[in-house]
Specification:
Blueprint (H helix, E strand, L loop, with lengths): L5 H6 L5 E2 L2 H5 L2 E2 L9 E6 L2 E5 L1 E10 L6 E6 L2 E6 L16 E10 L5 E9 L4 H19 L1
Family: Belongs to the RMI2 family.
GO molecular function, one term: DNA binding
Keywords: DNA replication, DNA-binding, Nucleus
Length: 146
């Protein structure tokens, strides 16, 4: 019979949680000895939600060609995305003004949220619709999860 070892189980992550940059700014690290593996956000009155893999959307503010990091902005503030050169098809969707989706692992929350990209997609074709719906999508998912 096949048995999972503890390292396999420990590395398993929950699905990405939709979050806003303002929520990450106030997140608290709950990882072992400050490891950063698990953060807790407070989506509402008395509720808490553990997150490590996040789904964020925003407008590209800065995308220097010579770096592996870009700056995005959602309706609540800015956040940095690292590792964009390592994401398949990630770099082509990163020009100033484009609206993009990023899934990634939280690296830091203060003074500005930083995530390491795992997946990226250009949502610019329907940017107006995505922008209008984003905050509602975030709120709805977080209500379901808490």
């Amino acid at each position: 019979m096949y048995q999972l070892d503890k390292t396999t189980v420990a590395k398993k992550r929950s699905p990405p949680v939709k979050v806003l940059s303002s929520q990450l700014r106030t997140a608290q690290n709950q990882g072992a000895a400050g490891s950063g593996d698990c953060w807790v956000i407070r989506p509402g009155r008395g509720r808490s939600l553990p997150v490590s893999l996040v789904w964020m959307q925003g407008t590209v503010m800065e995308a220097p060609l010579d770096t592996n990091t870009v700056l995005l902005m959602d309706e609540t503030g800015t956040f940095a995305v690292q590792g964009v050169n390592n994401v398949p098809k990630g770099k082509p969707c990163l020009s100033q003004g484009k609206y993009v989706m990023v899934m990634g692992v939280i690296q830091a929350v203060s003074p500005e949220p930083v995530i390491r990209a795992v997946k990226m997609a250009d949502l610019s074709a329907l940017a107006a619709l995505h922008r209008r719906m984003w905050k509602l999508e975030v709120e709805e998912l977080q209500q379901v999860l808490t």
